[in-house]
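TICKET #2291
ISSUE: user wants both folds in one file
ATTACHMENT 1:
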Amino acid sequence: MVSLKSLVSLGSHALLVLVVAVAQLQSQTVESQSCPTELTSLNVCAPFVVPGAAVTNPSIDCCNALQSVHHDCLCSTLQIASRLPSQCNIPPLTCA
């Protein structure tokens, strides 16, 4: 059985990998050039987005980081992330 600590560590690493991968896929417009930096600032939110996390309410640092990310940057990131399973030849994710 996988421990909660292992899941949190895995989730944090997965979030970082996702942020880095998405940051590299952004377009070349001036606004999107700041997107990788904005996404990197979301690392402070990692402890709150891992399934089974002990603390589920985001910190003020997480909320501030999320607020500082431009809407287009966040939406583009989520769209890119949603395409990753098919691009990696794995079944699509279905979330309840």
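ATTACHMENT 2:
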Amino acid sequence: MAAAVIKKFFIASMFMWIAPLAILYGFNHNLLPGSSNLSPHAMTLVSGFVAVISVNIVIAFYIYMAMKEPVDKHEPDPKFLADAKASVSKPTGEASTSSESSKKRE
């Protein structure tokens, strides 16, 4: 499961680099239709805008894929929960002494 998540993250990260660079390259080398008719100033603005939009599309797609991930209910450790509830119910002065005593145990 973790390997699939890392793989999706890696692929999305690669597209976040590749898509805008490919768009900027395409505009600067007149590979995209209509880009040769633009002035240099307009070409810079349009290529930058389209590159930013492409990154946002990749992010939105990654969020969509993350939302489709199966959700496994994680049950916290019962000992941890008991210790957390005990530490919350203690007065402030006792909490610092318990942390000192736990450091001594280690």
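RESOLUTION: both attachments delivered.
EXTRA DETAIL ON ATTACHMENT 2: Residues 99 and 105 are 10 Å apart (CA to CA).
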